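Task 17 of the worksheet. Students: predict the tertiary structure of the chain below and write it out as structure tokens. Keep your answer in the requested format; marks are given for formatting as well as content.
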Amino acid sequence: MWETGRVFQIAAEMRRYNLEVLGISETHWTQVGQQRLTSGELLLYSSHEEENAPHTQGVALMLSKQAKNALIGWESHGPRIIKASFKTKKEGISMNIIQCYASTNYYNEDAKDQFHNTL
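Model answer:
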């Protein structure tokens, strides 16, 4: 997703498949934030927040216009986990979506433990 234009290509595919929410891993972006696309989608992203951080890991959620209107709030939990809460049609019921990017078995054991504890 780091490449120019990739976000708009993903948004077009999301519309093509009629998806309301799309979870994305390995964004390779830095920082935490949100971006409204000219086509109406909202991109929520979470990655490394340190200055001069590497362009590694990163997760995101892309929301359709309808999902954007149902969004209650969202939270970043580091470069591997993002959570968004949505209103549902059932009064008093909300839905949480968690997008995560888990480490492989070859990754540092402490980092894997920290990821699972956060999740």
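Marker's comment: The chain has one domain: 6-118. The radius of gyration is 15 Å.
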